[in-house]
Structures are given as C-alpha cells and as structure tokens.
Design goal:
globular; 0% strand; mainly alpha; 7 helices; single chain
Length: 152
C-alpha cells in the first residue's frame, strides 16, 4: 500500500474525523463556554492590526504571557483547521478555497461572539487564526503532497 493510499484509508480517515470532532468540541468550549460570561462592556475591533500592532511593538505595555497568549495562541489553536479541512474535504485543497472556508468559519465564530457578547469580535483574531490555518495547510501539503495536475 502506498503512503498516499494509507493516508486516505478508511481507518485513517475515521481517525482524522474523530480528531476533527474532538477539536471542534474543545474549540467550542474554549471560544464560548470555558470561563466566559456575557460582557456588559463588550468591546470589538474592526480595524486590522489594531490589537496585533501594540502586542508586537509595545513590549513594555504587555507581559510576555499576554503577548504569547494573544498572538501565538490565536495562531497555534487554528493550525489543526488547516490540516483536517483539506484532508476530509477534497474541494478545500487549494490555498484560495481553504482560506475562503476558514474565513467563513471564523466570521461565524466572531458573529456568534458578538451576538452572545461572549469573547470579543476582533478582526485581528480572524487574521491570526487564518495564519494558523495556513501553517496547518502547509504541513498538510508537505505530508500529503501537492495535488497532481493532469494534462488535457
């Protein structure tokens, strides 16, 4: 059995699906439930890089922990999205299509956070989360390989 055939075997796909479901449940808990209550003074950010820039440039203003949590946490937590979406759904194996579906998912999450006032709507979260998905997708492409183009 080839490496590619093994990666798409029923057992591997079932395992990836299981991991995707667990990941989704964990992320829903982190984003909407775990220690979160609706905020009275809800804040949101619609200006790109408004929260990223100070975290990168104003080191004395933020602790290392706050910078790592806000920058790298938002990236690292979404790396799996860039792996399991294209693995399970063939149509999302291009950078454009993956980016499109990831941004749609993130807009849904941010909109739910806005409506429920749990967490905060922040365009910078969408940017960082998308970067995480891109890193995951790059890893996926290294593992699986680029899609083969056929000649017509």
């Amino acid at each position: 059995m080839s490496r590619r055939a093994l990666l798409y075997s029923k057992r591997v796909l079932a395992f990836i699906t299981f991991l995707a479901v667990i990941y989704t449940l964990i992320m829903c808990n982190l984003l909407f439930f775990s220690g979160r209550a609706p905020g009275v003074n809800y804040q949101y950010n619609l200006v790109p890089f408004e929260t990223i820039r100070p975290l990168l440039l104003e080191r004395e203003r933020y602790s290392t922990e706050a910078r790592i949590k806000n920058l790298f946490g938002n990236i690292v937590l979404f790396i799996p999205l860039g792996i399991w979406i294209p693995w399970l759904f063939h149509r999302y194996r291009s950078w454009f299509r993956l980016t499109f579906i990831v941004v749609l998912i993130l807009l849904l999450v941010e909109t739910i956070q806005l409506i429920t006032r749990v967490g905060s709507l922040d365009v910078d979260d969408i940017i960082l989360n998308t970067v995480g998905a891109w890193i995951g997708f790059a890893g996926f492409r290294l593992l699986i390989g680029s899609p083969r183009k056929t000649r017509s």
